[in-house]
Amino acid sequence: MAPSIEQIVGRIHSVETFGAVDGPGIRYVLFLQGCPLRCQYCHNPDTWRYEEGIQRTAREVVDDILRYRNFIATGGVTLSGGEPLHQAAFCRAVMDLCHQEGISCAVDTSGAIPLRACRQAVAAADLILLDIKALDPALCLTLTGQDNRNAIELLNHCELTGKEVWIRHVLVPGLTLDNAKLEALAGFISAYSCVSLIELLPFHKMGEYKWEALRLRSPLWQTQPPAPDEVEKAKEIFRSRGLKVR
After folding, report:
1. What's the pLDDT at 169?
2. Which long-range contacts (CB under 8 A, 24 or more apart) does 175-183 make?
3. Tell me: the pLDDT tens digits for 172-223?
4. Distance CA 49, CA 224 (A)
5. pTM of the entire predicted model
6. Which residues make beta-bridge pairs with 54?
7. Three-class SS of 95-159
8. What's the pLDDT score for residue 238?
9. Would you list the DSSP string of 20-64?
10. Segment 62-87 mean pLDDT
11. Would you say 102 and 47 are in contact if contact means Cβ atoms under 8 Å apart?
12. Residues 112, 154: Cα–Cα separation, whole Å
């Protein structure tokens, strides 16, 4: 007999109970363990290995979320990671239980998981935060170890189904912070009516200590964050296409 949605088990990395940057309003952010990508700028490399997470049932997770419902009343819950859709059944179970309590849910995903494996979880989300690593498949492969075909398939699916999407894109000097690449990405995204917001995220070095704790060296250890005026110029490229940017 299949377990009830309350009994479905997931592996959790950590939680943030007062998140303000992962979706609208104040949010309970659930970071799930496990990710198939190896992004050069990853600030949570300690989420990569699925088996290192803490096991919790969907019911246990939602019971904890309910402790904060007054704080997240104007926001909701965001499932992040790692790659949350790596645990698609668990994501759907948590979101279904949250919806029973009137709590909205977002999924913060790289789009790395094939749609066939996560379609039901995507359908359950109220909002998809989709991290487009790079429009060029070859650059995406260099940055993450995987090309972008699954992410584009997910974006196309959201367009067909009317699922709201926020696009996230990390600005890495020497890699993605390039006017021609940004122009191409802005032009590509502008064709999608499901995209309501673009978040351009400056590369930062705050997670490098985690690489060191794992006895790894970040491939971008010599790369410095972009200057504020470079970030503003990147935003203007997207605004010039009529896109809402922050």
Report:
1. 98
2. 175/40, 175/134, 175/139, 175/143, 176/133, 176/134, 176/139, 176/143, 177/203, 177/226, 177/230, 177/234, 179/233, 179/237, 181/134, 181/135, 181/136, 181/139, 182/234, 182/237, 182/238, 183/237
3. 999 999 999 999 999 999 999 999 999 999 999 888 888 888 888 889 899 9
4. 27
5. 0.95
6. 12
7. HHHHHHCCCCEEEEECCCCCHHHHHHHHHHCCEEEEECCCCCHHHHHHHHCCCCHHHHHHHHHHH
8. 98
9. SSSSSSSEEEEEES--S---TT-S-GGGS-GGGSEEEEHHHHHHH
10. 97
11. no
12. 9
What Rg, from alpha-carbon coordinates, does the chain have? 18
What are the beta bridge partners of residue 245? Answer: 198
> Can you give the pLDDT at residue 210?
86
Is the pLDDT score of 2 beyond 80? Answer: no
